[in-house]
Design brief:
By secondary structure, this protein is mostly helical. The protein has one domain (4-277, 356-429). Helix content is 64%, strand content 3%. It is built from 20 helices and four strands. The strands form two sheets. It has a two-stranded parallel ribbon with strand order 1-4. A two-stranded antiparallel sheet has the order 2-3. A hairpin with a 4-residue loop joins strand 2 (158-161) and strand 3 (166-168). Helix 5 packs across helix 9 (212-228), helix 8 packs antiparallel against helix 18 (389-398) and helix 10 (231-245) packs antiparallel against helix 18 (389-398).
């Protein structure tokens, strides 16, 4: 069958999904969080979604989709009984499942190269923006603030965003800890942007063909990742490089890709000066938790939440799991053990354990199993040895950020549930 070309509306819709996954401003969080958007902010993602459904004649009489929805709604019912209250955000998360299904049905395997392409183009803008921030910080800041679509408070991680680029806060990322300002790309902070770049790097590196445009795309993404100075991003990159180098038959390359080299390399990356302080602070879990808890308990309504480092967040999510191992605390984190028993202003990050804390051990295990199945599919699709590669990359990135319920990333770990190689809609040339 002759492959068709994606039309502009197809590119635009996928671009919208990627931008909303970056969640740089409150308006672009409305695809995931029900309390962040207004009417216009909801009309853009949901209006274009409805248009795409009609345009591509997407059908929803899919048995597996109905089973997934049924399991999810049964869990929602149990949660409603448990807390004696229905949380309206549950419907939005249901719609995110449906959007993931729609993405798979419209784009199929094309979404991999399309995601890489869009993130690469946006990373070109990010690199240029970061360079301008370094060489002419004052003038560029004024330009960014003048074109920003949102007014950010002074304590925010970014101080301006114009959809295509976010200007990192000098207060947050310009101090002695970092040699240069950190690059937030088109997201709400550098680490999140780094994670989005790593997903694009995965799709780039695992291709069998290494065309000139693929090599150029790699270097753009690699340079963009370096400018983020992200611990999580660098760790995931090491995992990627190990699997990438293992694809080659040259014995020297195989030695370089062995875990004997991998482990010291990971140590070198971790102890880089700008990362050492972050990790050493995170390792002192008990003292750091006590300090943050004291700060959080002194906060009053209207104050900012306290966001712990990744190691403390893992510990807090473990506390949530122990409190409710079967059903989890639900969609609304306000019902979690940490927020009800310690402080409502304490907000742990990350998703590696949060998926268990939120949905319970059983559903969490099912989600991880589905992630593994998709990881196996990707290894077969890209024809490399490494069934666990995508699984490990996703898991490493999830230590700091939760991607499980973001539509574009949901469509990746749920891919084998809904993908059908006989669907003609997937047969695009990108």
């Amino acid at each position: 069958m002759k492959k068709r070309s994606l039309e502009r509306i197809d590119y635009f819709y996928f671009f919208v999904v990627v931008i909303y996954a970056a969640m740089a401003v409150p308006a672009t969080k409305s695809m995931v969080r029900p309390w962040n958007g207004g009417v216009i902010e909801y009309l853009i993602p949901w209006g274009t979604t409805i248009f795409m459904v009609l345009r591509h004649r997407i059908r929803f009489d899919n048995v597996i989709l109905l089973k997934v929805i049924g399991i999810y709604m049964f869990w929602v019912l149990l949660q409603t009984i448990k807390i004696d209250q229905f949380y309206d955000g549950s419907i939005l998360f249901l719609l995110n499942i449906i959007i993931s299904y729609i993405l798979i049905k419209i784009y199929g395997v094309t979404m991999f190269s399309l995601y890489e392409k869009i993130v690469t183009h946006l990373s070109v803008v990010a690199i240029i923006g970061w360079v301008l921030q370094v060489i002419i910080p004052g003038s560029f800041t004024e330009v960014m603030k003048a074109t920003s679509i949102h007014d950010f408070p002074s304590y925010n991680t970014i101080i301006a965003n114009n959809i295509f680029f976010s200007l990192s806060s000098y207060h947050q990322y310009g101090g002695y800890e970092y040699f240069l300002p950190r690059n937030s790309g088109f997201s709400w902070e550098p680490g999140r942007y780094a994670a989005m770049v790593v997903f694009a790097l995965y799709f780039n590196l695992m291709k069998q063909s290494r065309k000139a445009k693929d090599i150029l795309s790699f270097w753009v993404l690699f340079l963009a990742l370096l400018t983020t100075q992200s611990t999580t991003g660098y760790a995931a990159l090491v995992v990627l490089l190990v699997y990438f180098l293992k694809k080659y038959k040259n014995p020297i390359i195989k030695i370089l890709s062995s875990y004997v080299v991998f482990i010291p390399l990971l140590v070198v990356i971790i102890v880089a000066p700008f990362m050492l302080e972050k990790i050493s602070a995170g390792l002192s879990v008990e003292s750091e938790l006590a300090r943050l808890t004291e700060i959080a308990q002194n906060r009053t309504q209207g104050d900012r939440v306290v966001v712990p480092q990744r190691f403390v967040s893992l510990y807090l999510n473990w506390m949530n799991i122990k409190e409710s191992p079967i059903l989890g605390y639900g969609i609304d984190s306000a019902n979690s053990f940490v927020k009800t028993q310690i402080s409502p202003f304490l907000s742990p990050t990350g998703g590696s354990l949060r998926i268990f804390a939120q949905f319970g051990l059983l559903l969490g295990a099912i989600v991880y199993f589905q992630l593994y199945k998709s990881s196996v599919f990707f290894s077969k699709y890209y024809k490399y040895k490494g069934n666990w590669c995508f699984f490990f990359v996703f898991s490493v990135l999830s230590v700091s950020y939760s991607f499980w319920m973001v539509p574009i990333y949901m469509s990746l770990w749920m891919f084998t549930l809904f993908y059908n190689k006989n669907d003609i809609l997937k047969d695009y040339a990108c």
